[in-house]
């Protein structure tokens, strides 16, 4: 089976674009990624399009109407917050299986303001906080409170995640927000669902990202290996059955399963990873995923954030893009935007936020349902 490489990738600056259609922003990212590879849509043998479905059917085909209808197969993917990563993985699998040599993966979404996962108007997030609610702010509040109960994690430690990621975003021109938020400001912001304040919740934005994937043979033939990044592992998992979760969502268990699969596929451990883009949909989520991804042992996440290990310049920088908390979280685009960020660092092209000497990077997304995707990328 061929190795698979990312030979082109890009994303638009995340924001809000009420005067544009979802296929407009998807087409923009697709053209940017193709230009990054020095290729055209005519070179693609298939397209994998990620959109959570709020924009209607056939988003991939609608993108091709903008950039070139070549008659190639189009697969439209929806898989909660792992939608973009799943579209990317489908393209990876098709090349790995020898069906195609070159494909385009694109993820795009237009989000409404308010509650994570909702579209349109309203400010449902501002009324969140009822115990027992199944909405995402409450779910991840419960995740954080359970971590605090088990390990003594503090409100301040959770808040430091936002301080870090908002600082990182000031170095990323494609982030929705590029604003410093001091610890006191984060902790004093409107409480959404304790312990997550408003500044500890991900930003609902419009956005798109795309990647061109290629077989090793084709990349070599076209002279594209110079800036190419190898996909060393691609893992996708759903909730494993346990006596504790039964039919419920378990973001911890599904992340541990996907991470274990990815590390085994890549033949390496978490101590060999140089940087990570993980699913910080809420500040509490980032803390628990340090442990789920094996960056530290149980209960060690609070110490990691206190000592700056996950800051740019630290032992294992996490969410140097600004993460979902500042860059934004357009559901269908997030997984591929993470691929773009890691690829940019492995190429040495991340500018002021560059993780020096980065050779191995990991991306992680997890969505309600549950669906978790972990990719490990390697500098060639």
From TrEMBL:
Keywords: Lipid transport, Lipid-binding, Transferase, Transport
Domain of life of the native organism: Bacteria
Coiled coil ranges: none
Family annotation (Gene3D superfamilies): 3.40.47.10
CDD domains: SCP-x_thiolase (cd00829)
Broad enzyme group: transferase
InterPro entries reported for this sequence: Thiolase (IPR002155), Thiolase-like (IPR016039), Thiolase_C_2 (IPR055140), Thiolase_CS (IPR020613), Thiolase_N (IPR020616)
EC number: 2.3.1.176
Thiolase C-terminal domain span: 254-378
Protein known as: propanoyl-CoA C-acyltransferase
């Amino acid at each position: 089976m061929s190795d698979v490489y990312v030979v082109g990738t890009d994303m638009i600056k995340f924001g809000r674009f009420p005067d544009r259609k979802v296929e407009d922003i998807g087409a923009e990212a697709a053209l940017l990624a193709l230009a990054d590879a020095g290729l055209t849509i005519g070179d693609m043998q298939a397209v994998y399009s990620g959109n959570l479905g709020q924009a209607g059917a056939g988003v991939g085909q609608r993108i091709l109407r903008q950039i070139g209808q070549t008659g190639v197969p189009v697969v439209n993917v929806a898989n909660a917050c792992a939608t973009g990563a799943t579209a990317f993985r489908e393209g990876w699998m098709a090349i790995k299986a020898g069906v195609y040599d070159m494909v385009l993966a694109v993820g795009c979404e237009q989000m409404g303001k308010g509650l994570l996962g909702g579209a349109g108007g309203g400010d449902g997030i501002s009324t969140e906080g009822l115990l027992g609610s199944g909405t995402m702010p409450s779910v991840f509040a419960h995740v954080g409170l359970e971590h605090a109960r088990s390990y003594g994690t503090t409100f301040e430690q959770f808040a430091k995640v936002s301080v870090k990621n908002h600082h990182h975003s000031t170095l990323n021109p494609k982030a929705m927000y590029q604003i410093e938020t001091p610890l006191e400001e984060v902790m004093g912001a409107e409480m959404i669902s304790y312990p997550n304040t408003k500044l500890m919740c991900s930003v609902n934005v419009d956005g798109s990202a795309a990647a061109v994937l290629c077989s090793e043979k084709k990349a070599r033939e076209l002279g594209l290996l110079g800036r190419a990044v190898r996909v060393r592992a691609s893992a996708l998992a759903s909730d494993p059955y346990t006596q504790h979760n039964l039919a419920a969502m378990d973001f911890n268990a599904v992340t541990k399963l996907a991470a274990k699969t990815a590390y085994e596929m890549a033949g390496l451990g978490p101590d060999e990873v140089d940087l990570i883009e993980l699913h910080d949909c809420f500040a509490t989520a980032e803390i628990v995923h340090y442990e789920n991804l094996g960056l530290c042992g149980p209960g060690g996440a609070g110490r990691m954030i206190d000592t700056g290990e996950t800051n740019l310049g630290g032992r294992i920088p996490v969410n140097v893009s600004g993460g979902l908390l500042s860059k934004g979280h357009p559901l269908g685009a997030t997984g591929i935007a993470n691929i773009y960020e890691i690829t940019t660092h492995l190429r040495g092209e991340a500018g002021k936020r560059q993780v020096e000497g980065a050779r191995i990077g990991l991306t992680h997304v997890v969505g309600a349902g549950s669906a978790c995707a972990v990719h490990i990328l390697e500098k060639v």
